[in-house]
Amino acid sequence: MALVESKGLILFAKDHKEKDKLVKIFTESAGKQMFYVRGAHRKNNPLQPAMMPFTEATYIGQFSDQGLSFLNAAKFIHPFRQIQSDIFLAGYATYLLNLTDAAIEDRVYDPHLYQFLKEALLFIDQGKDAEVITNIFEVQILQRFGVQFDWMRCAICGETKGKFDFSSKYNGLLCEKHWHMDERRYHADPRAVYFLQVFHQIGYHQIDHIQISSEIKNEIRKLLDALYDEYVGIHLKSKSFIDQMKTWNQVLKPKED
Ligand SMILES: [Zn+2]
C-alpha cells in the first residue's frame, strides 16, 4: 500500500491491547478510516498529540480499501483547545462526531460533510452557541441519513407563509389551514418549526444574528428529538449525555434568560 496524506478529524480513539490504539479518523480524501497505531502509549510517541480527541491534523499513512489502515506520521496538528478543556463543549462536539460516524459508511468520500463538521467544531471552539450549532448540524445532516423534507412549504397546498406543524403522514410541513388533515401531526411549537426552517438553510456564521430564548430552544430540542426518533432511530450515548448536561447547566447558570 502506498503512503497517502490527508487532512482528518479524530472521531474517537480506543485502547487496543496494552500498548496500541485503534483511532478512527474522518479523512477529507478517503472518508472514515480505522487506523491501527502500534505503540500508541509509548512515551514520546510523536503521534500522541495528533490522536487526542477534538483534533484536526494532516495524517500520513497507509489508507486501506478494506480492514485497518496504518498511521505513520502527522503534521499541521490543530487541537480544538476550548472544546478539549470544557466538558459542556466536549459533550456537544462528541455528539456531532458520533452523528457523523453514524451517518455515512466507512471509506465514503464526503468532503462536504467533512467541511461541515470541521466548521461546526471551529465555531463551537470559538465560543459560539454550541446548542444552536448542534441543531443546525442535526437538521442539515438528516439528508445523509436518507431523510429529506421540503422545509419551505406546506406538503398539501404549497403555502410558504404562516404557522407550520410537522406531519409524518405527509412527510413534511402542514400549514395551519391543513392541520386538520392529520390529527396525529406533531403538535410542535410553530416557533420551533420556524427555526428548523431557518437552520435548514443557514451557515453557522449566521447565528450571530439569531436570538433564541431557552424556552424556544427546549421546543426545538423536543421537535428534533421527535424527528430523529421517527426518521433516524439511533440512540447515541453522547446525545443522552447532552440531555443530562442541560439539567446541570440550569444549576450552574440559573440567571440565564
Ligand atoms: Zn396547506
UniProtKB/TrEMBL annotation:
Domain DNA replication/recombination mediator RecO N-terminal, first and last residues per copy: 1-80
Alphabetized UniProt keyword annotations: DNA damage, DNA recombination, DNA repair
A Pfam family this chain is assigned to: RecO_C
Keyword DNA repair: yes
SUPFAM superfamilies: ArfGap/RecO-like zinc finger, Nucleic acid-binding proteins
Homology family: Belongs to the RecO family.
Functional description taken from the UniProt entry: Involved in DNA repair and RecF pathway recombination.
Descriptive protein name: DNA repair protein RecO
Organism of this sequence: Enterococcus camelliae
